Amino acid sequence: MNYDVLIVGGGIAGMESALTLGDMGLKALLIEKEPSIGGKMVLLSKVFPTLDCASCISTPKMASTIHHPNVTIMTSSEIRKIAKNGDGAFKALINRKSTYVDNNACTGCGECEAACTVALPDRFNFGMVAHRAAYIPFPQAVPKKAVINRQGQSPCSNVCPAGVKAHGYVSLVRSGRYDEAFHLHMEDAPLPGSLSRACYAPCENACTRSDLEGSVDIRRIKRFMVDHYYSAHSEPEYGTPEKLSDKRIAIVGSGPAGLSAAYHLGRKGYHIKIFEREEQAGGMLRYAIPAYRLPKDIVDRDIKNITALGVEIETNTNITSVASLKEQGFDTVFLAVGTYETWKMNLPGEDLDGVMDCMGFLSKANTGKISDLSGKTVVVVGGGNSAIDPARLALRMGAEKVIILYRRTRKEMPAHEWEIQAAIDEGADLMILKTPRRFIGSNGRLVKVEVLRMELGEPDDSGRRRPVPVKGSEHSIDVDLAVLAIGLRPSTDSFTDQLKINRNETFRVNPETLETNIPSVFAGGDGVTGPAMIVDAIGQGKRAAFYINRYLQGESLDNIEFDSRLSIADKYDVLSNRGAISKRMQIVAVEPPPSQRVKTSEEVEKCMTEEEARYSANRCLDCGNCSECGECIKACPADAVHFDMQPEEIEIEADSVIVSTGFKLFDAHLKTNYGYGKYPNVVTAMQMDRLVSPTKPFNRTLRPSDGKAPDNIAFVLCTGSRDCTIDNPICSRVCCMYSIKQAELIMGALPLADITIYYIDIRAFGKGYEEFYKQAKEMGVYFVKGRVAKIELVEDGNLSVFYEDIDGGSGPQQMEHDLVVLSVGLLPNMDALHLFNNGDRLEADAYSYVKEINEDIDPTRTSIDGVFAAGTTSAARDIPDSILHAGAAAAQAAGYIHQLKASR
Amino acid sequence: MMEGVIDRGIAEIIRDEMIMHDKIISILKDDPKTIPEIAEALGYPSHEVVYWVMAMWRYGKIEETTAKPNADGYFMYKVK
Ligand SMILES: Cc1cc2nc3c(=O)[nH]c(=O)nc-3n(C[C@H](O)[C@H](O)[C@H](O)COP(=O)(O)OP(=O)(O)OC[C@H]3O[C@@H](n4cnc5c(N)ncnc54)[C@H](O)[C@@H]3O)c2cc1C
Ligand code: SF4
Ligand code: SF4
User: For residue A662, how far is its CA from the centre of ligand 1 (angstroms)?
Assistant: First the structure.
């Protein structure tokens, strides 16, 4: 794309240059990093000395700029680099950030903003009020389009294998929108009840708050949201989709992977049948996880979410042949068979009656086929979570003694520490550094286990130290039941002759599409990943559904990305850039004491109360800003919000460049003796300009400490200007006059207010400025010559200002005010100095403003030929001067362009 | 949380708005109140309550009851 001029910065100066050049018939591209043009001027109340409304003057200019046929505007865009070509023209690389809103569709109605669940400081009101993660910058914004503030994806959501928007439902619960939270979860994963109990919650490990007092209790918040919803909705609110497909899908296995695939495909109207070899559906949810962790009525209710779509489940049906399913007329097959087998230990006596594998024991116990172990000694072999469940279950079935036998130390146990502790609290014995050598029977029944003591040797491939048997340490333990929980094995045996299988007995699939070596046959869940988590399996089911749908639609499976996510929000940034974060402890989970809970198979963990859930949700730090709750998408009547919009890198060429990146404001926190950021009633002049503007952040001009209309206001001039202590010795040129302007405006808004201006000397140099100053005095503004030394808090939020009365000659004095305005100075925007490639250096002057090489006789020209500075980029200026300067820059640029064109 | 001194991060105070809505609405349900009165009922400092009340005003959840403040300089707010 070629332009005559590239203008960087869309404040009043940038707009003026663009319009002037546009009127000359030259093509201008105006780049603005914010979502609206207008710069700081449009945020001001009125302008000195005429007291014309700033936005009334700005908005017509903004509108002319956006509608000018020769001016192109790119908002929310930043320059990556500008380089000068050999021929005198410039090449620029521009990053157009994604706003996630289609500007052609957005009407600026603000419905998204009203629905949004994330409150953030509104930078266009200088932090005095909140706006939302979905926002329209300000009422006069041009373009007046919404923007979604997404700073990466929050860690909790980013790590979820099923793509559940954890941050989204947490923010909905925080807002009290529990049903919406439930529905958001259902967009990604259909088994929220089971996950709310038994998910190992990788989101919590990733949670930024885990670096502070402990992660947000995301899973327990989900539990609250699910219980709230299920208690009001015993049945799903939906039925079979209206539009049904004639394509048929067979799913083998009704665990989380199979159910998840069925749900996502069922929503698309496919005819789906799940085949399950056990008596009931649910897979591990039903047969492995004990009821004290996951009540079976919750599993039943979860499964209704799938069957409500018309998905059929045929139980007691063991599928051993993919071909037979094809013969039955299924167009595609998804194998979600899980890992129901247990690896053998290959020890003598392993086949004895009384030696059971983990899944055999759990499924019998969970279905009541074994229910009483009173008086028995049970030994569970293994150190993973699959060893803890049988141990705790055996205790609930009355076992007198339960031993967990593990060959390394507790530290190396793969089970979660809290689960190990819970088992020990409930009475299990942990025998570490021991392994069975053989099982000893009497009349075919197990009576003893011979064990060997181990010691730790060198680390193995997993990094854990290898257990080495201690010679001669054999001894035996009397036992009635041994449960072998040394690892689960994929249930792929029936398919070895039909499908490619890996050495670890998992299905060999394309890891992206989950397609097996037979096109139309897909596999997922633990049968592919090996033993993993419920949420992994749900993610696999969702992935498979995505590609199965494409397959059935005849679409290619190649080079199509499933579940593309924004990059993860940086925890460090969150913790360092969000201001102070108070300590907020986790809510301690309520559980009956171990001695009591072991007597029943009732659910151990109690649900949070509503108050606790909202408190817990409010511990969230809104890491990525937007929570992806999706409320804006639902609220937008124009369907303009699209989270899949991508940023663009655009390369352009231009004959000339105008830099109009404006100024920065002095950070008043640096004058610590003035108490800015500490005392609510110390504000900056930019905040005061907002407080007296027609689009003020409060309902009237009120003080921030308590919403009272102030009646005794002070201005402290030269805050951050003419002050060597903060390394800015120069005058900011506008502070005297804007303070007088604000004083006059306050007198209009609050006629009874007293106003004092503390100054060093008043700089009223422009046309009409001296008269403006006199007018303020005549109106009763009290001018005190003397620099303010410090500000202290007195009663009721009022402030005591310490100053030296120079004119009155009465030395150090003190005066009480109920609002103090710091008339902060202007500073250079040094970003401008980094716009160009190193070879072409934009030089700075002694105060770090962009240097005009010969300001007196050749204004706006910079150190790079063809680059011109406009407005406050090169010095502190007021609006009339900025406009004049921008006109000069436009004229200079036009001259350069003309010469360049003539030389070609 | 101290009256008169900002001792929490602004971003955190602003985040709290979302759990304060319902509480503030229920405080204002029967009688309109000034910001210091809401602050007292909530048990939070007034300067924090200003953030929540002003955001609720901005997004049309509450409104002031009169065009002018009372003799002490305060507006009363009611549920809209
Ligand atoms: C409290 C206060 C009150 C004031 N009141 C008055 C008044 O009443 N009358 C008066 O005459 N003057 C007043 N001024 C001064 C006035 O604000 C400035 O003169 C005017 O805003 C200067 O315009 P500008 O375009 O040079 O800069 P800015 O308004 O700062 O605009 C620069 C623009 O460039 C954008 N930008 C910056 N870097 C980049 C980049 N790398 N890429 C793309 N875009 C970028 C910025 O986002 C911004 O939109 C006041 C100033 C203050 C602080
Ligand atoms: S997804 Fe939710 S949090 Fe994000 S902008 Fe939309 S409404 Fe706000
Ligand atoms: S603080 Fe909130 S957004 Fe950040 S990771 Fe934790 S739950 Fe997610």
Answer: 5
Complex ipTM > 0.90: yes
CB pair distance less than 8 Å for B18 and A706: no
B42 inside domain: yes
Find the angle CA(A178)-CA(A181)-CA(A187) to the nearest 5 degrees.
145
Q: What is the pLDDT of residues A219-252, one digit of tens each?
A: 999 999 999 999 999 999 999 999 999 999 999 9
Q: Give the model's pLDDT for residue A808.
A: 83
Read off the pLDDT of residues A747-775 as tens digits, 9 standing for 90 and up: 999 999 999 999 999 999 999 999 999 99
CA distance A219 to A197: 7
Buried residues in A871-883 as b, exposed as e (16+ CB within 10 A): bbbbbbbbbebbb
Whole-prediction pTM: 0.93
pLDDT at A462: 79
Q: Per the domain annotation, does B20 fall within a domain?
A: yes
Q: Is residue B31 part of a domain?
A: yes
B21–A119: do the CB atoms touch at under 8 Å? no
How would you classify the pairing of strands A271-275 and A248-252? parallel
Q: Which atom of ligand 1 is nearest to the CA of A871?
A: 26
Q: Which residues does residue A28 pair with via DSSP β-bridges, in sequence order?
A: A5, A71
Residue A569 in contact with ligand 3 by CB distance below 6 A: no
The reply to whether B54 falls in a domain is yes
Are the CB atoms for A677 and B6 separated by under 8 Å? yes
pLDDT at A411 over 70: yes
- Is A336 within 8 Å of A524 (Cβ atoms)? yes
Around Cβ A318, how many Cβ atoms within 10 Å?
10
> How far is it, in rounded angstroms, from Cα A416 to Cα A780?
72
**Domain region containing B20:** 10-59+70-79
Pairing of strands A71-74, A712-719: unpaired
User: Facing residues of A135 across strands?
Assistant: A147
Q: Which residue of A has its CA nearest to B33?
A: A707
Q: Note the pLDDT tens digit of each residue in A696-741.
A: 999 999 999 999 999 999 999 999 999 999 999 999 999 999 999 9
Q: Which residues line ligand 2 (CB under 6 A)?
A: A 115-118, 132-134, 148, 171, 626-632
Question: Residue A733, by phi and psi: left (phi above 0), alpha (psi -120 to 50) or beta?
Answer: left
List the structure tokens of A169: 């439902």
Domain count for chain B: 1
End-to-end CA distance of chain B: 29
Q: Is A616 in the pocket of ligand 3 (CB under 6 A)?
A: no
With beta carbons under 8 A apart, name residues in chain B contacting A126.
none
